[in-house]
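Quick review question:
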């Protein structure tokens, strides 16, 4: 069995399912739903109906297929399984949202890989098995899984509305740390449907990690590192965190501070699409404007500058200096190898 699974590129591990698949799933979301949202925003502001009435809706409706292909790609699926996963992804998204898509494609693609090139009528058997297995999973597991994740997200959102200080700290710190770990915070927030004040706290926490690491590592990594981390991902610092976990303290403290400021002072909100993105490609900031449509532009901009950029930078740098003075952080600890 081990030889068979190895031959079929089926790897049952946290790395494959928890990291590779979730990360690829996020790319599928970005290439469809995120692009559709951005183009819709541009279309509204510029008065381009072609974007708002045609391109944006199509991009959004393609999310299931895009996620399906992305997940199958992460599973190293052969061509027929990869293409059939677009169908499974569409069914999964229709019946169970992002989480339904994830599970239906994951299981359908793995079964498709098992039968791939095992028969003389592979061109029929492989896509049929992939679509049937994935379709069954989408039908039976999609709705309850989606309801479960939506329920958890709703509890988090409600709890944040009732206890904005405490939940502001918790959501900001946890989602921010997930962003820095090799797990997709964007996919997690999408599956939870994290929006409103909770989404705002999550976006602030993610931004604190990215801006915080970008600023405290500027001396060692220069402008290239600043842009790679600040508008790319704080995950680049993970190898350094593994060598000295104390470098994670400054941006995490910054996240704990800006979270409740986001919920209580500026009452920042965000969408499930932007809440787990932080400053990556400025998606978190674009989605903040979308989530707070109707709120004065300068109020939203002030909140973004304060909780996503200025405060994270200052707080992270202050604690970086403190930890460096006591010897917890040393020169070279934040150097990127890229």
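Suggested answer, residue by residue:
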């Amino acid at each position: 069995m081990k030889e068979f699974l190895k031959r079929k590129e089926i790897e049952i591990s946290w790395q494959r399912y928890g990291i590779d698949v979730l990360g690829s799933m996020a790319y599928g979301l970005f290439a469809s739903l995120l692009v559709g949202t951005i183009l819709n925003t541009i279309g509204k502001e510029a008065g381009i109906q072609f974007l708002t009435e045609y391109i944006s809706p199509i991009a959004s409706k393609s999310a299931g297929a895009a996620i399906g292909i992305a997940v199958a790609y992460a599973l190293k699926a052969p061509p027929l399984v990869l293409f059939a996963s677009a169908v499974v992804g569409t069914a999964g998204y229709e019946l169970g949202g992002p989480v339904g898509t994830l599970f239906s494609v994951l299981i359908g693609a793995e079964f498709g890989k098992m039968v791939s090139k095992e028969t003389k009528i592979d061109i029929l058997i492989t896509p049929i098995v992939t679509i049937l297995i994935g379709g069954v999973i989408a039908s039976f597991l999609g709705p309850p899984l989606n309801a479960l994740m939506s329920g958890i997200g709703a509890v988090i959102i409600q709890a944040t509305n009732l206890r904005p200080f405490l939940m502001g700290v918790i959501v900001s710190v946890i989602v921010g740390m997930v962003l820095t770990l090799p797990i997709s915070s964007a996919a997690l927030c999408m599956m939870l449907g994290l929006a409103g004040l909770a989404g705002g706290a999550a976006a602030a926490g993610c931004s604190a990690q990215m801006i915080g690491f970008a600023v405290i590592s500027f001396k060692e990594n220069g402008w290239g590192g600043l842009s790679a981390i600040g508008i790319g991902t704080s995950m680049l610092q993970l190898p350094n965190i593994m060598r000295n976990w104390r470098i994670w303290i400054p941006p995490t403290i910054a996240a704990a501070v800006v979270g409740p400021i986001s919920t209580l002072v500026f009452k920042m909100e965000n969408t499930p699409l932007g809440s787990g993105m932080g400053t990556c490609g400025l998606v978190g900031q674009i989605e903040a404007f979308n989530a707070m449509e109707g709120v004065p532009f300068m109020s939203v901009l002030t909140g973004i500058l304060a909780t996503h950029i200025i405060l994270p930078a200052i707080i992270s740098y202050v604690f970086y200096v403190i930890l460096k003075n006591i010897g917890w952080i040393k020169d070279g600890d934040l150097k990127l190898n890229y």
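Why it works: The longest helix spans residues 79-115. The CA atoms of residues 29 and 163 lie 30 Å apart.
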